[in-house]
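Handout, section B. The chain below has 114 residues.
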Amino acid sequence: MAVDDWEMREMHDKVRLSRSERLALLRIEAVLRQDRRFTRRMGTPRREFWLPAAVLLLGAASVFVAVMGIRTYDPALLWCFALLWPLTLFQAFRLRCRSARPRPRPDAGTTHWL
């Protein structure tokens, strides 16, 4: 008998786990959180990659547009640099703030039924 997501949500309120069951479930969740292959297979998005890549690409594009604008004296390129540079600085600031934020330990996650 298959149980769909809606039935599981309804059953969630009716099911109470014992202390030993909750601890066993927490151990299983901790092991699954540390398994990178499992995370990849489950399709969990890795957001850590996109912000550094965006900063790198925006920085490279800003430098390229600035150098080409200065070399050719083309106002369109200089205006492109004027638009790209603040965006690059904003993204670099976000990256700096994220890297300074303390990261939670993998075993620090608790579930809502504890």
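Note. The chain is about 70% helix and 0% strand. Compare this with the example in section A.
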